[in-house]
Amino acid sequence: MIPPAALAIHLSIGQVYAFSVFNLPLSQIIGVTESVPGDWKLTTIGWIFSIAIVFLGLSAAVFGKWLERVGPRKAMFIAALCFSGGFFVSSLGVYLHQIWIVYLGYGVLGGIGLGIGYISPVSTLIKWFPDRPGMATGMAIMGFGGGAMIGSPLAVALLDYFSTPDSVGVSETFLVMGAVYFALMMFGVITVRIPPKDWKPEGYVPSEKPRKLITNNHVNADTALKTPQFWLLWVILCVNVTAGIGVLGQASPMIQEMFEGVITAEAAAGFVGLLSLFNLVGRFFWSSLSDKIGRKTVYAIYFGLGLLMYTLIPTLGRLDTAIWFVIGFGIIMSMYGGGFSTIPAYLRDLFGTYQVGAIHGRLLTAWSTAGILGPVLVNYIREIQINAGVDKAEAYTVTMYIMAGLLLIGLVCNYLVKEVDPKYHMFKKKDEE
Amino acid sequence: MKDTSQNQHEVEKTPVIKIALAWLFVSIPLMWGIYQVVLKSLPLFTGS
Fold this sequence. Notes:
Strand content of chain B: under 5%
CATH architecture of the largest domain in chain A: Up-down Bundle
Helix content of chain A: over 70%
Mean pLDDT of chain A: 89
Strand content of chain A: under 5%
Largest sheet of chain B: none
Number of strands of chain B: 0
Structural class of chain B: mainly alpha
Largest sheet of chain A: none
Shape of chain A: globular
Number of helices of chain A: 18
CATH superfamily of the largest domain in chain A: MFS general substrate transporter like domains
CATH class of the largest domain in chain A: Mainly Alpha
Largest interface: A-B, 44 and 33 residues
Shape of chain B: rod-shaped
CATH topology of the largest domain in chain A: Growth Hormone, Chain: A
Mean pLDDT of chain B: 77
Oligomer: heterodimer
Distance between the termini of chain B: 53 Å
């Protein structure tokens, strides 16, 4: 029952990736069919998502230790209240046409719900599945990837239903979505359980002999911050997400400009959808594989193969057919998703299970950083290129090489990851309290 | 809101039907989402 509970939470909060569906309607609240003076600008609306992602990272970092203390059920309940509350407050903000209320609602309140919701099932899953922590967390975090797939068509359907000649229907859509996600998250709240002390799955015998890079000891969240391993994983997550987010945001114009006359805007939208499917499958596939071949090896594949793929993309973009380009990007996106879902198990291997949820929460500040760094880096480099007279399709080449460079940094950091120095370990008896 | 109720006891076996229903509950929206994505991505392969 625990994986469906975790999946319910992540499928809900993963809606954040589909927030861009609201960009256009939010920019036409007064004009309804077109933006008129007084309507919010797209740049103003863009801040809603950015604030939510920043608060995701901050709340995951701040509330991680609290979550370890109160348990997943209470944390999931608070996450459900915050996330759905964010929709309700934003609905009021849209109704009153006050952007600061929407920032406060979906951005701050919703963002806190995202952060707490994201980390709430992770440590519980690792404890329920000590034999397959990668698969278990991969299943939940896969839900976050799938959240956009549900959130986007659901929002489109609701907007269609509620829109009238006088209203774009966003306020009503927010109300319904808040209620729907609250119900889905409450399913997770009701069904989640923490395992009994010393719980082991049937037939599972934990290895007495310490395996390379998998500790039987524990490091608490505050001490983890003092270890080089935490910061190496922070950089690993940051560069992996920066590279992925950077190109994900550009995927639609990129394929249209690289295959001008071949790929229509509609087909490009299909391409973006397909990438999210690769992202979803990658989250489960790669993290499950990491249980067999080890976390370090999997991350070496992400960065090694990713580096190769990013370098190949400009060449694939010059072929007559887009199929290889689509496959190449699909592999990149699967590893982008895998980077998210394998990190909790990597943390468990290095720091033990004691406060793995709290450590994971603190590591997610790397995601917030990447959320700003990725798009800025890609847009900035592209603008410089185009201003220098480089062809639009060719301007992506440099971007791809820079992303490959980022992955090289990740590859080096991953190589440097070693066992945590025993001086950071907690005493066994204290751990088990 | 206590989630430690089972902590002191042995884990009770959850009936298979309950597990199946729980998976069904979360799988339906996920499958609907995947179906929508596949539908949307068809023009990429049909060239329309």
